[in-house]
Amino acid sequence: xxxxxxxxxxxxxxxxxxxxxxxxxxxxxxxxxxxxxxxxxxxxxxxxxxxxxxxxxxxxxxxxxxxxxxxxxxxxxxxxxxxxxxxxxxxxxxxxxxxxxxxxxxxxxxxxxxxxxxxxxxxxxxxxxxxxxxxxxxxxxxxxxxxxxxxxxxxxxxxxxxxxxxxxxxxxxxxxxxxxxxxxxxxxxxxxxxxxxxxxxxxxxxxxxxxxxxxxxxxxxxxxxxxxxxxxxxxxxxxxxxxxxxxxxxxxxxxxxxxx
Length: 260
Known about the structure:
The chain has seven helices and 14 strands. By secondary structure, the chain is α+β, with helices and mostly antiparallel strands. A hairpin with a 3-residue loop joins strand 12 and strand 13 (237-246).
């Protein structure tokens, strides 16, 4: 599979490099006739990878994130003559427990503690936070390392154990709703309305490559947002956009669901 040809349409260097790795895995599979596994990818990366893999008729693949509805997933790549049921999973699940009664521990806290161990983000899948514990999908090769070495999360002592992937508990997403109006559906206008920022501040975030729409990096402030788009702004959080009717003055009604 030709890396340059298959990624010629991709402008984002980070995404292009990740797709190079996927193609390397695919070429290795074609050469050695075995099963290869990617690192964890976000939904936009998975979509791009699948488009590439679909161009090769001698390959099959399956996508798995540990549970139904997972966000971050890995892709198993295997020869066309192997049945999907024969491809065994290589994902592990851990549970992090602690006494968090007096402090709320966030997704950022858990992720930061894991990355502080020297683990690459691409080795970590979804992080599901509950009241007194957190469950994390991880690559098989780092599971034992985390269990042995992770003992604190945000200055709180924790205990870590492996659990069966089937015992993952999907958490309910909490959010608050806000309403406002905009003159256009430009992403800089939407971000300004959701986070009460000036247009200058919003543009700075976009130009600083801190904004994604449905996991795709956005560099243009004039990019229009569609209804039900998931927008993430590094340092601020994530929200879903719902586009409403026009006001009498011709402005567009927007409802933002900000994830807590």
